[in-house]
Automatic annotation (TrEMBL):
Natural source organism: Clostridium senegalense
Name of the protein in question: ABC transporter permease
Record-linked PANTHER family: ABC TRANSPORTER, PERMEASE PROTEIN, GUANOSINE ABC TRANSPORTER PERMEASE PROTEIN NUPP
Cellular component terms per the entry's GO annotation: plasma membrane
Its membrane topology: Multi-pass membrane protein
Transmembrane segments: 12-33, 63-84, 91-110, 116-136, 148-167, 198-217, 246-266, 325-343
UniProt keyword annotations, A-Z: Cell membrane, Membrane, Transmembrane, Transmembrane helix
């Protein structure tokens, strides 16, 4: 019983420790910003935590803003988690998210469609766009052995310039406004409040996270993906195709990111503006996945934390706390989580050395 409890608690101890330590360190910066003395440490703790809570969940509108922020973070986190589970680094989630957005911006302007049909078409368009954008680096990795990191970074820029070309240089953009037209009412997702961006895409995001968890841990496909991520050489020896699963993982990852981008347009933006940079959600999704230890269900809880931090930035600033404290907390969390991965790497290396020497 004790062994089972230890097995369950071990994966979640380090993320909680990372969050605790990030807040512990961040409080000192709050003290510096507000001129607190060292004896007022707990006052600063209360100030920081209270402001984050009020800024993200303190009012109905703030809660709706946090929920709206959660949805794309869940999609991006799960997309990254799938790639990480296969031992791949899909730095291109941002570009795949952008391609999902532009596909929704185009499909959403088709007039005269039934709302159910229209939303389904938007979802399928986002999935297809993300699948293609994720499949390209997956194929190049499997066929030619090229780094998916370099390929996905380059595809991020290509996606941004392609989207901007469509918006600025084709009939899909509104002349002089650097954006696509507002999508049809039939393509817009139902919102929880008329004046707030939170919408039913949060339920789709949670459903996708649960489905991917089931896929990874309860199916043969998921077993092969995880086996390749743990040890590609052993997986190949056992008859599992590393190349096939590399492509499959990148395709699934891209499809999830593309769906997230499409639903972000359908639920929140209702149009696509020209990109100065690829959406930050793709990179935030890396942090979400790392904190969740690449567990799709864990990505839901992780997304809640990062969404709360993002939406509370303005409240922090109004309370005399620099909004950059949000990025500081996120950075410290990532550093501590990364430390766990480094420790595991050296532990595995030590074990292999002991086996060889033994």
């Amino acid at each position: 019983m004790l062994q089972k409890l230890k097995k369950v608690l071990k994966p979640i101890i380090f993320p909680f420790l990372a969050i605790f330590l990030s807040l512990f360190v961040s409080v000192f910066f709050v003290m510096w910003a507000k001129g607190y003395s060292i004896t007022q440490y707990f006052t600063a703790v209360s100030d920081l935590m209270g402001t984050i809570w009020k800024g993200s969940f303190g009012t109905k509108r703030n809660m709706m803003n946090t929920i709206a922020e959660m949805s794309p973070l869940i999609f991006a986190g799960v997309a990254n988690a799938v790639a990480f589970r296969t031992g791949l680094f899909n730095i291109g989630v941002a570009g795949q998210f952008a391609m999902g957005m532009i596909s929704a911006g185009i499909i959403g302007t088709i007039p005269g469609l039934n709302p159910v049909v229209h939303v389904i078409l938007i979802c399928l368009g986002g999935i297809l766009a993300g699948t293609i954008w994720g499949g390209i680096p997956g194929f190049l990795r499997a066929r030619f052995g090229t780094s998916e990191v370099i390929n996905t970074i380059m595809l991020n820029y290509i996606s941004m310039f392609l989207a901007n070309y469509i918006i600025l240089k084709t009939s899909f953009g509104v002349p002089g406004k650097a954006r696509t037209p507002i999508i049809e009412k039939s393509a817009q997702l139902t919102r929880f409040m008329p004046s707030a961006p939170a919408n039913i895409s949060i339920f789709i995001a949670i459903a996708v996270a649960i489905f991917i968890f089931w896929l990874l841990w309860k199916t043969t496909v998921g077993y092969e993906i995880r086996a390749v991520g743990i040890n590609p050489h052993a997986a190949e020896y056992g008859g599992i195709s590393v190349a096939k699963n590399a492509i499959l993982a990148m395709v699934i990852s891209g499809a999830i990111a593309g769906l997230g981008g499409a639903l972000h347009v359908a639920g929140v933006n209702h149009m696509v503006q020209d990109f100065m940079a690829v959406p930050n959600y793709g990179f935030d999704g890396i942090a979400v996945a790392l904190l969740a230890k690449n567990n799709p269900i864990g990505c839901i809880a992780s997304a809640v934390l990062f969404a709360a931090l993002n939406t509370s930035a303005r409240a922090l600033q109004l309370n005399g706390i620099p909004k950059e404290i949000v990025f500081l907390i996120q950075a410290i969390i990532i550093i501590f989580v990364a430390t766990d991965y480094i420790m595991k790497y050296f532990e595995e290396k030590k074990k292999k050395g002991a086996i060889i020497n033994g």
